[in-house]
């Protein structure tokens, strides 16, 4: 099939969890023989004007729907006969009417966890029943993210974007309230002031942003991972990757991966994440 994947960024522009999830699934689709183009925030509009697509898959679209030509993009998506909505996030960039139209125009609607769907219902009074959605978790390679069974340093790790919505203030409070604990922060900040705050703590080692290839070693090096975001996390592949590596989770309950691990157990979540690219393409090609 000729397929157009539509999301704000590819993994080449942004290395976040949504982009890694897309990359896994797109590459598996290509392996299956599908011809897949990726339309991102700065793609030329003629991609959707000059080629017929058997299917379109839409992900996170805040920037796509902020372009000057966004109405053309919107009309193309909502009128396509085989639109798959692969929901990655909280969707708060859409007003209620547009959210209903976008999801309602889709032949398939896929969420990252049951908790993700339930938060949509709770937050937006989402009108589409659970029977009419599918759940596909973020794909994770457990041959890389697994427990090395090595001795660990008794330190608490924070890994990822240091931002208010990601719980930066919760992290700072944890550090201040536990002066005898040692922390390691691997990530990047949304504000220079956050970086200055981190450097001011005597019990914190700030090691900066690490590549995805370096994360299994970090998750196997320390005893605990801290993550308490403010908003809900549909899945959070970082949490699942860390859990697969055997690190203790110090996390809030507003994270889809935490709900999945509590409900199904770590081994079942590993299997679900490993099989998710295959599951995705089986669902959308029915």
Description:
The protein is an alpha/beta fold and 286 residues long. Helices cover 38% and strands 19% of the residues. The chain has two domains: 2-106, 3-Layer(aba) Sandwich (Rossmann fold); 153-272, Rossmann fold (3-Layer(aba) Sandwich). The strands form two sheets. A six-stranded parallel beta sheet has the order 2-1-3-4-5-6, with helices on both faces. A five-stranded parallel beta sheet has the order 9-8-7-10-11, sandwiched between helices. Strand 4 (83-86), helix 4 and strand 5 form a beta-alpha-beta unit. Helix 1 (17-31) packs across helix 11 and helix 10 (256-264) crosses helix 11 (266-284).
Outline the fold blueprint.
Blueprint: E1 2-6, H1 17-31, E2 35-39, H2 46-49, E3 55-58, H3 70-79, E4 83-86, H4 96-104, E5 108-111, H5 114-124, E6 134-135, E7 153-162, H6 168-177, E8 183-189, H7 192-200, E9 204-206, H8 215-219, E10 222-227, H9 237-244, E11 248-251, H10 256-264, H11 266-284
């Amino acid at each position: 099939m000729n397929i157009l994947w539509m999301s704000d960024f590819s993994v080449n522009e942004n290395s976040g969890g949504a982009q890694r999830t897309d990359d896994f699934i797109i590459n598996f689709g290509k392996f299956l023989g599908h011809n897949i183009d990726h339309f991102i925030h700065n793609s030329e509009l003629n991609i959707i004007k000059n080629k017929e697509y058997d299917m379109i898959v839409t992900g996170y679209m805040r920037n796509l729907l902020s372009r000057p030509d966004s109405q053309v993009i919107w009309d193309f998506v909502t009128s396509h006969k085989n639109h798959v909505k692969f929901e990655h996030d909280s969707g708060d960039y859409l007003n209620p009417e547009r959210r209903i139209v976008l999801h309602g125009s889709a032949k398939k609607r896929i969420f990252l966890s049951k908790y993700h769907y339930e938060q949509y219902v709770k937050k937006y009074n989402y009108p589409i029943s659970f029977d009419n959605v599918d759940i596909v978790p973020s794909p994770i390679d457990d041959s890389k993210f697994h427990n090395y069974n090595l001795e660990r340093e008794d330190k608490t790790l924070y890994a990822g974007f240091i931002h208010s919505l990601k719980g930066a203030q919760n992290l700072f409070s944890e550090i201040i309230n536990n002066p005898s604990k040692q922390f390691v922060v691997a990530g990047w900040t949304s504000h220079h002031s956050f970086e200055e705050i981190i450097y001011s703590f005597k019990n914190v080692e700030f090691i900066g942003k690490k590549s995805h290839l370096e994360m299994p070693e970090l998750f196997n090096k320390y005893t605990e991972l801290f993550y308490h975001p403010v908003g809900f996390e549909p899945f959070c592949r970082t949490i699942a990757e860390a859990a697969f590596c055997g690190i203790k989770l110090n996390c809030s309950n507003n994270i889809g991966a935490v709900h999945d691990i509590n409900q199904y157990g770590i081994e079942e979540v590993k299997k679900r994440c490993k099989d998710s690219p295959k599951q995705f393409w089986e669902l959308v090609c029915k």
